[in-house]
Amino acid sequence: MADVAKSGAPKRVVVGIGGLVAVLAPGLTALALIVAGRATMLVRSLVAAGVALLGVASYFYHPGGKATGVLVLALVIAGAALVLSGPLIVAPLALGAGLIGAEYLPTIVSGHLAATAVAVSDLHQAIFASPGSPLPLEIAVLVVAILPFAAALRLMLR
Description:
Blueprint: H1 2-6, H2 11-57, H3 64-110, H4 114-128, H5 135-157
Helix pairs in contact: 2-3, 2-4, 2-5, 3-5, 4-5
């Protein structure tokens, strides 16, 4: 913090941004894992479609009997890619997001998370130039911390 303040940034701004990042980091990490899982689902569909199209394209350069065999093989591989990529790729990403949420949310709601108390104090210091942790600011920090988790849950349920 001292190095950033030496470069000309006001200490209150650095403290405020640090407090906000401390509160948002777990939620944004969980949200990024869910977005990565959804993107993986799209990529696996594109790969499966590409493999199936490759099998169909074999009709242009193979005789009928061989082309049918290539098409069946391509369809089997595309189906396996669709079926196996869900549990092997997407499930661990969702599990990581769930573990972050299961660890972070109960402690932040119960008020026993030191990072949240420090973040509230830092934000109060940044906004009002004095230490403190008023209840409205604690509630605002709680809402801000929960928003990325809510967005991740919405993406999972959609």
